[in-house]
């Protein structure tokens, strides 16, 4: 196929995918007040989450992953303005009325927050917090109790009858994280936004949680947006990945293909830094320079000060995301070169 | 090599009477200058509890912690030099930082508490260098901790700990919220400090790959006890304890679809 034909095929594939998707994010832009004027913390972010699919959201620390999830949940810092579209089952959540949003957020779309300690109420017992939605749904006390125990158990919390009486500070980091997962699953969501859901977990518990999420996904057609810095986890659970850098999408596509053959130099740098478990990998060479933040976004391609392939054009011209192969998009002027090398 | 940190037969119980729970049950560990001890293990096995004892935030009900031959008591009663020498990066970076304080104020406070560690010359320049070391740009200095992303908070906590040039750094999941390229930068930094300033590291992490990269020795905890300890290469490639084997079996490597990676862990044996 010629390059143009590949690009056309990719665009046609994209259109079909968008139609079938559960969540469609289009040109999402979020600005925040900042000492030097407003800053675009998210700048034209577009991606889809198809039904019963896991999309991994990876990228630089500070690149806007949590902000993206927050925008979907309507949880943004004070003073934020949002433009673009977040269409969930045919309705744009950015313009929907409050009653509709109440039915959707926390229920159809639930979130596991990055910082479990901040997501939990320190003055309430774990069981009460996990039972909040079932209680509001009018279940009896005994039914709520049964449901809470079941949720805690499914989230891998040992001795749920005893643990449900504990307060958050009595939990280890990993137990808290599982409690937050149990809370998110309590409303039987169709889309789970999981922000670093397994970071504080040992790998055996991590495997259990991932297996749990996968079984819910299979049984109930759950879609998941998995924010994670752990490429190994993402590579095992996500069908698609979206890679962010400085508030923009650097590249996206089918997970394995993106990780095996990146179409953006930033993704390539990420993949090269993943340590192996059983063999000792030398400490990776860090990228030169400081990570870009949306507040200090370099001109042209935001990655250019750190990019080994950067040339003159990269300093002046912002690379627009474009189709570069089947189902794949990259925001690099020289994506074909990266793919080919 | 004599130990800089010597944790001996540590026991910690949370709660009382019927609610009592033995979180750490006879743990002994040592870390020498210029050495990195990786501490891995089950969630809830007591790793953070051990770290809190070393930091003097909780009092053990048995055993003790010595640093350079001196007993390490509660943090409030430690001589200033000892307080400065033992620094900790906490597991929940957001809750260990005051969200209203600017990053400059967070670091400034560390220098005020330990004037002996404060830079002699230009403070702003020293601050910017410190931030650059942990991969934060200079503009971060004027931002409030509450406005930072998870990984940015984590790097501020690391910068705060390093600001006073400790001799022992306890890192509790200190790089867990960082993307791998920033992580690589921090690991390099810690490793350089280890060699150049003989920094000792107690490095707690769930990431076995990272531990294998940075640790000289590894201790594996389960249910309040150390079940296996030894040189990193031995523990990670030829584990002796059943639990260590289970951990290693559950650990994922990158699955990029190439045959040697596919199919082994895709279905997560629980
Ligand atoms: N309340 C806020 N006010 C101003 N800026 C903010 C606020 N919260 C976050 N930011 C900035 O917005 C950018 C995106 O933050 P976000 O939390 O989405 O990053 P992230 O990709 O989730 O990073 P990490 O992996 O470190 O969690 C960051 O540069 C951050 O400093
Ligand atoms: N303040 C407390 N009161 C009661 N129990 C506690 C308290 N703090 C911790 N625990 C319990 O002690 C045990 C050990 O906790 P610790 O935080 O040390 O584990 P950890 O190994 O750091 O786990 P993780 O990897 O999940 O962070 C856990 O079972 C925890 O629930
Ligand atoms: S556009 Fe240029 S600077 Fe940006 S990633 Fe591609 S080659 Fe590098
Ligand atoms: Mg985040
Ligand atoms: Mg812990």
How would you characterize the overall build of this protein?
The complex is a heterodimer of chains A (341) and B (270). Chain A contains 15 helices and twelve strands. Chain A is α/β, with parallel strands linked by helices and 341 residues long. Chain A has an eight-stranded mixed beta sheet with strand order 6-7-8-3-9-10-12-11, sandwiched between helices. In chain A, strands 2-1-4-5 form a four-stranded antiparallel beta sheet, covered by helices on one side. Chain A is globular. Chain A starts with a helix and ends with a helix. Chain B has 270 residues and is α/β, with parallel strands linked by helices. Chain B is 34% helix and 23% strand. Chain B has helices spanning 47-55, 80-85, 103-113, 123-133, 150-163, 180-197, 208-214, 232-237, 242-250, and strands at 5-14, 21-31, 36-41, 62-67, 70-71, 86-89, 168-172, 200-204, 217-222, 225-231. In chain B, helix 3 (103-113) runs parallel beside helix 5 and helix 4 (123-133) packs across helix 5 (150-163). The longest helix of chain B has 18 residues, at 180-197. Chain B is globular and about 55 Å long. Chain B starts with a strand and ends in a 20-residue tail after the last helix. Residues 260-270 of chain B have low confidence and may be disordered. Classes of the chains: A alpha/beta (341), B alpha/beta (270). The interface between A and B is large, with 67 and 72 residues. The structure holds adenosine-5'-triphosphate (ATP) (2 copies), iron/sulfur cluster and magnesium ion (MG) (2 copies). The site of iron/sulfur cluster (SF4) has 13 residues of chain A, from loops. One adenosine-5'-triphosphate sits between chains B (14-15, 21, 23, 43-49, 91) and A (169-175, 200).
